[in-house]
Amino acid sequence: MMLCFLQVEFLLWREHPSLDRSSAFLSRVYREDIGPCLSFTRSELSQLVQRAVENNSLTIEPVAMSALPLVKASALECGGPKKCALSGLSRVCQHRIKLGDKGSYYYISPSSRARITAVCNFFTYIRYILQGLVRQNAEQIFWEVMRLRREMAVAKLGFYLTDQS
C-alpha cells in the first residue's frame, strides 16, 4: 500500500518537477533519506555539506597517500588523514571534500563518503530529470528513483564498498 502513495507523490512531482522541497515527494525523500544520510556528529559541517550537495558545488577527491606529509596545515585542521571531519571518529580517510570554492578541505571516512555520494547520485538523477535528459517512461524513472533511495538507505546504515571489494 505504501508503494502506491510513493508512486502517486512521485507522479504528481513529475508533472512539475523542481528541487522545491515543498512537494510531497521531495519532502518525503528529504525526511526519510537525505536528512538522515547527511546527518553527522558535526552538525554545522553537515549542514554546509548538504547545502553544497544541493547547490552542486561539493567536490570529493582521493587523497594521495604519498603526498600527505606535504598537505597544508589548514587542511589538516579539518580532520586530517586519520580523523573524519564529519563524524569526529579516528578513521583512515582516503578522500576529502571541498565545499564550493572555499579553500578548506575536509577529510572524510569511507562511510561518510558513501553517504555523501549516495545523496549526490540521487541529486544528479533528479537534475537529469529536470533538464529533460531522462528518456524513459514514468514507471522506469520511478524505479530508478527508488533504487537511488535504497542506495541512500544502505549507506546511512553504514554499508559501503571498499576499493578492494
Structure report:
GO terms for molecular function: guanyl-nucleotide exchange factor activity. Belongs to the SEC2 family. This protein is mainly alpha-helical and 165 residues long. The protein has one domain (27-156). It is built from six helices and three strands, in the order αααβαββαα. A three-stranded antiparallel sheet has the order 1-2-3. The termini are far apart. The model is unreliable at 73-77 (pLDDT under 50).
Radius of gyration: 17 Å
- The share of residues in helices is 40-55%
Largest sheet properties = 3 strands, antiparallel
**How many DSSP H or I helices?**
6
What is the domain tally? 1
Mean pLDDT: 89
Roughly what fraction of the amino acids lie in strands?
A: 5-15%
Number of strands: 3
The run of helices and strands is HHHEHEEHH
Q: Shape, please?
A: elongated
Major sheet strand order: 1-2-3
Q: Which consecutive residue ranges, at least 5 long each, have pLDDT under 50?
A: 73-77
For the terminal residues, how far apart are their CA atoms? Answer: 36 Å
Main structural class: mainly alpha
Short account of what is shown:
By secondary structure, the chain is mainly alpha-helical. It has 6 helices and 3 strands, in the order H-H-H-E-H-E-E-H-H.
Helix and strand arrangement:
Elements: H1 2-15, H2 24-37, H3 43-54, E1 58-62, H4 73-76, E2 95-99, E3 105-108, H5 110-130, H6 138-156
Helix pairs in contact: 2-6, 5-6
Defining key terms:
165 residues, RAB3A interacting protein (rabin3)-like 1, single chain, three-stranded antiparallel sheet, 51% helix
